[in-house]
Specification:
Number of helices: 10
Helix content: 55-70%
Order of helices and strands: HHHHHEHEHHHHEE
Structural class: mainly alpha
Protein name: DUF6533 domain-containing protein
CATH class: Mainly Alpha
Pfam family, one: DUF6533
InterPro entries: DUF6533
Number of domains: 1
Radius of gyration: 22 Å
CATH topology: Rhopdopsin 7-helix transmembrane proteins
Mean pLDDT: 76
Shape: globular
Keywords: Membrane, Transmembrane, Transmembrane helix
Largest sheet: 2 strands, antiparallel
Number of strands: 4
Distance between the termini: 55 Å
Length: 302
């Protein structure tokens, strides 16, 4: 029951985010070409959550029709895969910003891809080892009377909790590493503030602060020997908060990046050609920002 309430709370927050940003999505994201990475990341991050909702509802609400145990297991794996996809796209959005701040050079792109895959592949491998320990089982008489087709449980002797703890530590290490790298790049390479940096600092900073705190408390609570063990907090609340931070701040970052026309001398190639086009942005909102190049400390409005 608690899980179903958490899903309702998370989707209420996401639905509010959808409603309040839908007009910006239509005016700024939809006109973009599907060749642009910004549009791809935004749409996958936002709309891959819709099938997740129906899958979660099938887990926590009585089914309208009978499911076989194999069907239940496939549904579980599909939901896990969609969650990995949406969270990964949200994470990549922030890494793209770091790549742009590094002036879009190929050597930095190769380095960032290498580091990201260096964390992503082990984390997903260990995480799927944990998913593989779950099996679908026949529901009890009480659950069956209410229309549930199956329940999920770990195989006897499975190390799912240990797998999950390892992935949390690795995710925390990745988050802290990226946050430090971003701070160094922003404050060492770029001394002056401009509209693009303001967006990255605000949205990216809020995301990584929230994500770091959530992952830190998740690691502490789930560490063996911790005096207070509360599965509801360590698994349910932590997961909901982390997902909300990733989804909402990633979508806000992409929307604000499109809203802020980054005609920046150094970042222009990386951001304008890779992430978004600015052809459809109203001229009154276009700015030519020379601050990063050191040529001017003023923003010129066209």
């Amino acid at each position: 029951m608690w899980w179903s309430m958490d899903v309702v709370a998370m989707w209420t927050a996401l639905f509010y985010c959808y409603i309040t940003t839908y007009d910006e999505e239509v005016s700024r994201i939809w006109p973009q070409s599907f060749k642009k990475l910004g549009k791809i990341l935004f749409l996958i991050t936002r709309y891959s959550q819709i099938p997740q909702l129906f899958i979660w509802l099938s887990w926590f609400l009585p089914s309208l029709g009978p499911w076989s145990l194999k069907g239940c297991l496939v549904l579980f794996e599909l939901g896990a895969a969609l969650e990995v996809l949406s969270i990964s796209c949200a994470e990549v959005s922030f890494w793209i910003c770091l790549y742009a701040l590094l002036e879009g050079k190929r050597k930095y792109f190769a380095l960032l891809v290498f580091v990201w895959l260096g964390f992503f592949i082990p984390i997903q491998t260990i995480q799927w080892m944990g998913f593989a320990t779950y099996i679908a089982i026949e529901p009890g008489p009480f659950d069956r009377a209410y229309g549930y087709s199956c329940r999920y449980a770990n195989t006897p002797g499975a190390q799912a909790a240990k797998y999950e703890l390892v992935t949390l530590y690795m995710a925390l290490a990745r988050t802290i590493l990226f946050m430090i790298a971003s701070v160094v790049v922003i404050f060492v390479r770029y001394r002056r503030r401009n509209s693009l940096l303001t967006v990255i600092r605000r949205e990216g900073g809020m995301y990584y602060i929230c994500s770091s705190l959530v992952l830190f408390f998740a690691c502490v609570i789930r560490t063996p020997g911790f005096p207070v063990e509360n599965p509801y907090i360590s698994r349910t609340v932590i997961k909901v908060l982390r997902n909300l931070a990733q989804y909402i701040f990633a979508e806000r970052l992409l929307l604000q990046m499109q809203k802020t026309v980054y005609k920046t001398i150094r970042a222009q190639t990386a951001m304008s050609t890779l992430v978004f086009d600015d052809d459809n942005v109203p001229k009154t909102e276009k700015t030519v920002d020379h601050e990063l190049s050191g040529l001017s400390g003023r923003t010129v409005h066209s």
